[in-house]
Amino acid sequence: MDDFREEAKTLKVTESTQVLVVGGGIAGVSAAMAAARNGARVTLLEREYGLGGLATLGLIAIYLPLDDGLGEQVIYGLGEELLRMSIIHGCEGASPKAWLENSSLDERKKSRFVAQFNPVMFALEMERELRRLGVRILYGSVAVSVIRDDDRIAAVIIENKSGRSVVKCDVCVDCSGDADIANHAGVETRLHGKGNGLANWYYYRNSAGVKLKMFGLADLPNIEKREEKGKSDPYGNVTVASLANMRFSGVDGAELSEAVQEAHRKMYEDILKEKANDPEYAPVSMSMIPLVRMSRRIIGEYTMDDSENRVAFEDSIGLTGDWRKPGPCYEIPFRTLYSKKIRNLICAGRIISVTDAMWDITRVIPPCAVTGEAAGTAAAMTNDFPGLNVFELQEKLAAQNVRLHI
Fold first, then answer.
1. Going by CATH, does the domain composed of 13-194+295-399 fall within 3.50.50.60?
2. Residue 215: predicted pLDDT
3. Where would you tag: which of 57, 90, 126, 310 has the fewest CB atoms within 10 A of its CB?
4. Which residues of the chain are in CATH 3.50.50.60 domains?
């Protein structure tokens, strides 16, 4: 196959902002909210036309636990605020009643601080709040490259319906989910060792009403998983744990497209089987983005492992439990969010610097909100993250009701 050389051309600067957040998933929304609330001028870049990423566009509509499984809440701040926002119009399944009503420790031990939300309403509520804060949202826009000035990002090259242009920024927050900006900027990255399996969650309607079907790789605690097709999770959602042995990295365009098509094929077959048994069975909506769990993450100044359960870190920026089982609790070091190679770049969400074992813990909604809030708060404070006084950052986070230490 012949190669072609693209003609060089001058790109127009269409945006100039203090803080550029790339990616409008939960981490990106949290980063944009935190930066704006701390006085920064913020632009949020999102390739789709809605906020929330996997949580909303992917229909992974379970807000996993804010607690340690032993009756103690460990995530506060935006992590809790977004959970409450997600169910402001009511829960669709799991309800954290014991936690919202300040019940006793014994009652909280019986059920985790988890909620099932309506993805459409949650996406709209997040958009309303960002607009209220004055965040400029650029939908349908993809970051395709960066312009470096030595050890800093001077601008990000984007593409959207208007073509290719440049966004100048003082600070960039990578919440892309795949470490796209870090990779473009030359920060060292690593792929997840096992890749991703097929999944395509969807809502369906039958005589009993509308239900969520967790079609592949259901995000449920191991002790609650149902491996057989047709079984339900603790909240009444039908679960299909595995669709095929196929694995994909999440960062190869052709491979990703093939994986999505195969997931669609499996879903189509499933729908026809269900309709054969129940003529009223009909799909209502399906995941509109690839359900990539773990793809590419940065190698930061510190790489955290799941063996560091209840280990204290002087530079902790928040806590998380383990959504899969009760007991563990982790302090997340600020050093997992950046690399000294690019001083004005900070990362949040599922791309922070962790081992494969820890990755499955930090990739889900609550810790993404925690790292997003820390990244956005830091971005409003400095354009040199390795040089930031972490104690000043911790003071701000504590004032925002973030719990920093176990």
1. yes
2. 93
3. 90
4. 13-194+295-399
